[in-house]
Design goal:
With 78 residues, the chain is mostly loops. The chain has one domain (1-78). The chain has one helix spanning 53-60; strands at 35-36, 64-65. It has a two-stranded antiparallel ribbon with strand order 1-2. The longest helix is centred in the C-terminal third of the chain and has 8 residues, at 53-60. It is elongated and about 50 Å long.
Length: 78
């Protein structure tokens, strides 16, 4: 599935579902960086919203830094 963002949010929340197609939990390790930058191919910026190329560049070069992490362990949501 492919997505495009019209505007980058100030705070980005990513939810990674760690289940197989059968519904069982995936237990293999998952590594991630503490910083993430959304590639330009996923951003559909409207030139009308930005008055200068500098503003467009700033939006494309925005870096998100990891602030918090929640790890759920167990077989239920309780």
């Amino acid at each position: 599935m492919r997505f495009r963002l019209k505007q980058l949010p100030r705070i980005l929340i990513v939810h990674i579902k760690r289940f197989s197609w059968t519904g069982s939990k995936l237990r293999n390790p998952f590594n991630f960086d503490e910083e993430i930058q959304i590639d330009a191919e996923y951003i559909n910026l409207s030139q009308q919203k930005y008055s200068t190329d500098e503003e467009v560049s700033r939006e494309l070069n925005h870096v998100y830094r990891l602030y918090a992490l929640i790890v759920h362990e167990g077989n239920s949501t309780t």
